[in-house]
UniProtKB/TrEMBL annotation:
<feature type="active site" description="Proton acceptor">
    <location>
        <position position="34"/>
    </location>
</feature>
<dbReference type="Pfam" id="PF21350">
    <property type="entry name" value="Cas6_I-A"/>
</dbReference>
<dbReference type="GO" id="GO:0016788">
    <property type="term" value="F:hydrolase activity, acting on ester bonds"/>
</dbReference>
<feature type="domain" description="CRISPR associated protein Cas6 C-terminal">
    <location>
        <begin position="124"/>
        <end position="245"/>
    </location>
</feature>
<feature type="site" description="Transition state stabilizer">
    <location>
        <position position="55"/>
    </location>
</feature>
<keyword id="KW-0694">RNA-binding</keyword>
<keyword id="KW-0051">Antiviral defense</keyword>
<dbReference type="InterPro" id="IPR045747">
    <property type="entry name" value="CRISPR-assoc_prot_Cas6_N_sf"/>
</dbReference>
<dbReference type="GO" id="GO:0051607">
    <property type="term" value="P:defense response to virus"/>
</dbReference>
<dbReference type="InterPro" id="IPR049435">
    <property type="entry name" value="Cas_Cas6_C"/>
</dbReference>
<dbReference type="GO" id="GO:0003723">
    <property type="term" value="F:RNA binding"/>
</dbReference>
<protein>
    <recommendedName>
        <fullName>CRISPR-associated endoribonuclease</fullName>
    </recommendedName>
</protein>
<dbReference type="Pfam" id="PF01881">
    <property type="entry name" value="Cas_Cas6_C"/>
</dbReference>
<comment type="similarity">
    <text>Belongs to the CRISPR-associated protein Cas6/Cse3/CasE family.</text>
</comment>
<comment type="function">
    <text>CRISPR (clustered regularly interspaced short palindromic repeat), is an adaptive immune system that provides protection against mobile genetic elements (viruses, transposable elements and conjugative plasmids). CRISPR clusters contain sequences complementary to antecedent mobile elements and target invading nucleic acids. CRISPR clusters are transcribed and processed into CRISPR RNA (crRNA).</text>
</comment>
<dbReference type="InterPro" id="IPR010156">
    <property type="entry name" value="CRISPR-assoc_prot_Cas6"/>
</dbReference>
<feature type="active site" description="Proton donor">
    <location>
        <position position="49"/>
    </location>
</feature>
Amino acid sequence: MKRRNKLRSKITIRNLSNLPVNFDYQYGLASMLYFKLADADVRLANEIHAHQGFKFYTFSNLVLMNRKACKSGLCFERAYFILSSPDDRFIRSFTEGLLQQPEFYLDGPRGRIDLVIERIEILKEPSFGDECLFRTLSPIYIKTIRKENECLREIDLYPTEPKFYENLHRNLTERFSEFYGKEPVDHFDVVQTADINPRRIKIADSYRRCSLMSLRIQASPELLKFAYDAGLGEKNAMGFGCVDVVQGSKPIQ
């Protein structure tokens, strides 16, 4: 089995153009990550691109360190995002790619926005027991298939529906099994939720309905660690489902 050192990086960026970035920037950020990975490890990038199953990394929303008022997009001088994976090969290759070429760009309402990576920090992983309070750093995306008018349709789910939690559980255990090549200790229950914030995010030419939220999960430590490392829900490599641990947390009110 390959080494599975869990690594999480904090990537600080600076806006060189002093212009706003589009509100829906996740697809552009995901594309940048892939190309930076290819710069450092083209074999790994090709493996990820060709792989038909799950992709085992996720990243957060941009956290704006000095946001400015702007109606057309996100205006900032500096921001950071979190990149997380259960596979240290991905994190190390991505970091190498960024160090080789720290400049990148995202689209904005006025055109191309030039940015540069200023700093990369490796974050310490928390310890896990059998319960954890997570808060989302990027929204969780879950879908299902339903029959409507004799046709099967893909439907995005919100946390108000029980099917959301059923699919969240199944997705997590299936990804764990594919990554580690073994079944997890399958105890999983979302016992509390709070601060649910529905979102609608454009990825390429389609919109995804998703949710920012806090959720307390009781599960085996290995499943909780995997959720932290690889994210919750679907389309993690597109910037969905990145979570952080709320330390010293009290019960959600």
